[in-house]
């Protein structure tokens, strides 16, 4: 359903063991989980840059590709996830990327960093399933929320009212209402959920603030 409000835990993991531990914490409380794929060059961190395994799960997964060569990753790993989110900054040919992912029967979205304007992706908003707007500088758990990114959410919602707009970064009880009121309907939360004592309670708190 378009514009459904959804809380999405984000997983950064350097090993399969760490991935399994994080999945074990969140899988019973989430319908969709974001896997952060980080190559150490697009941003100065690394995550899931190995042949990871998430098979055997009935949860939906989206891959957030914070990498310099997204097409290579997509060609090798597209079947592991339901949605592929490509950073527009590293996308050499947006039309080809959209077509390739669609032909595999997967959802496609573009992600933009705080420094990229919504205008840059405007021409493609009719052709993608969702737009991910980074509200922190990407790549790490616990990065500082950037209030100046909120206007980008409103701008995207105004341009494309029916689009799924996702925010990623610094989503906590202090910020979720701000980004929701600006027009976001998908909310990625990393450290607030993953590092909490109770994933169930943390997700419930965020959901209640969207009512």
Detailed description of the structure:
The structure is a single chain. This protein has an eight-stranded parallel barrel, surrounded by six helices. The chain has one domain: Aldolase class I (TIM Barrel), CATH 3.20.20. The mean pLDDT is 95. The protein is globular. It has seven helices and nine strands. By secondary structure, it is of the alpha/beta class. Helices cover 28% and strands 23% of the residues. The longest helix has 11 residues.
Summarize the structure.
By secondary structure, this protein is α/β, with parallel strands linked by helices. The protein is built from 7 helices and 9 strands; from the N terminus they run E-H-E-E-E-H-E-H-E-E-H-E-H-E-H-H.
Sequence of strands across the biggest β-sheet: 1-2-4-5-6-7-8-9
Mean pLDDT reading: 95
- What is the terminal separation in angstroms? 17 Å
Total domain modules: 1
Low-confidence stretches: none
CATH H-level superfamily title: Aldolase class I
Into which percent range does the helicity of residues fall? 25-40%
In CATH terms, what is the architecture?
A: Alpha-Beta Barrel
Largest sheet at a glance? 8 strands, parallel, barrel
Radius of gyration, taken over Cα atoms and rounded to an integer in Å? 16 Å
Give the CA-based shape. Answer: globular
- From the structure provided, what is the oligomeric state, counting identical versus distinct chains? single chain
The sequence of SSEs as H and E is: EHEEEHEHEEHEHEHH
Helix/strand class: alpha/beta
What name does CATH use for the topology? TIM Barrel
What is the beta-strand fraction? 15-25%
Quantity of strands, as a count? 9
What's the level 1 CATH class?
Answer: Alpha Beta
* Helix segment tally: 7
């Amino acid at each position: 359903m378009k514009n459904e409000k959804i809380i999405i835990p984000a997983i950064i993991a350097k090993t399969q063991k760490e991935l399994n531990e994080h999945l074990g914490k969140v899988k019973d409380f989430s319908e969709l989980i974001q896997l952060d794929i980080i190559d150490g060059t697009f941003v100065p961190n690394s995550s899931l840059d190995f042949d990871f395994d998430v098979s055997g799960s009935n949860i939906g997964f989206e891959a957030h590709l914070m990498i310099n060569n997204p097409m290579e990753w997509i060609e090798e790993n597209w079947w592991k996830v339901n949605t592929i989110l490509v950073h527009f900054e590293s996308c050499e040919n947006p039309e080809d990327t959209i077509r390739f992912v669609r032909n595999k029967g997967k959802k496609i979205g573009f992600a933009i960093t705080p420094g990229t304007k919504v205008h840059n992706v405007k021409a493609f908003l009719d052709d993608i399933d969702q737009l991910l707007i980074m509200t922190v500088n990407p790549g790490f758990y616990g990065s500082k929320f950037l209030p100046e990114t909120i206007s980008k959410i409103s701008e995207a919602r105004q341009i494309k009212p029916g689009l799924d707009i996702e925010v990623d970064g610094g989503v906590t009880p202090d910020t979720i209402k701000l980004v929701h009121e600006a027009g976001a309907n998908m909310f990625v939360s990393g450290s607030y959920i993953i590092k909490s004592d109770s994933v169930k309670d943390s997700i419930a708190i965020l959901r209640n603030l969207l009512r």
